[in-house]
Amino acid sequence: MRLSPLPLIALLLAFVFAGCGDSATGEQFDPRGSLSFTYRDPINGTFSADGELTLPADALILPGGAAAAVRRGNTLTVAAARPASGSAVDVFTLGLGDARQAGTYSFNPVACNQQGAAECRTGAFAPALDAVALGLNPSLATLAGKAYIVVLGSVRITEISARRVRGEFSGTAALANDPLHPLTIADGRFDVPIQTF
Question: Where does the secretion signal sit in this chain (predicted)?
Fold first, then answer.
């Protein structure tokens, strides 16, 4: 079965290239976020982003990267970016659907196409994206060919409030055009502020 990464990629682009506002709760807001995980086969490494993600995206290329979550209507998306080499950035997103309480949620990319955003739980890892080229021509097709889409696994939200979400994740991801060479994602952790728009 071939899954379409376009709904998640569209969320990623909307997050990266759109502005957002703060929630109006009385809860203390810490703008710094962190997200990390290891990945192996067919590429190997560690992703780690720690910092404040300021939108619009001109602040994406920071020395330590940046991570945050966005709640838009009934969907919650966690995103992180870190500099790679030259003008390239590594980008990771977790679509958490309408998650509003702690618990364990299975990744279900099929729901993204069949049931809608509230049930869509998946992720995307796009290593070494050319930020300059993407900024000049944000093509979904270009991005989709470079993104590993999380197709199996789960996310455990350990704590969630109106202003912050924390949790752990692991799973298996594959390129849409090469599903026979999956990428293993392990030891994932996030602790990010939630921005609402």
Answer: 1-18
Residue reference for tokens 């955003």: 117
36-80 pLDDT, tens digit per residue, is: 999 999 999 999 999 987 654 444 445 678 899 999 888 999 999
DSSP the chain: -PPP-HHHHHHHHHHHH---B---SSS----EEEEEEEEESSS-EEEEEEEE--TTGGG---TT-EEEEEEETTEEEEEEEEE-STTEEEEEEEEETT--SSEEEE-BHHHHHHT-GGG-EEEEEEEEEEHHHHHH---HHHHHTTPEEEEEEEEEEEEE-SSEEEEEEEEEEEETTEEEEEEEEEEEEEEEEEEE-
- Ordered by start, the domain boundaries in the chain are 6-18+33-196
Burial class (CB in 10 A: 0-12, 13-18, 19+), 28: exposed
Nearest to 81 by CA among 69, 94, 93: 93
- Distance, CA of 87 to CA of 138 (rounded, Å): 15
Cis link prior to 56 (omega < 30° from 0)? yes
pTM of the model: 0.81
Backbone angles phi, psi at 183, to 5 degrees: -105, 130
Q: How far is CA 71 from CA 6, 22, 34, 74, 177, in A?
A: 19, 10, 17, 7, 30
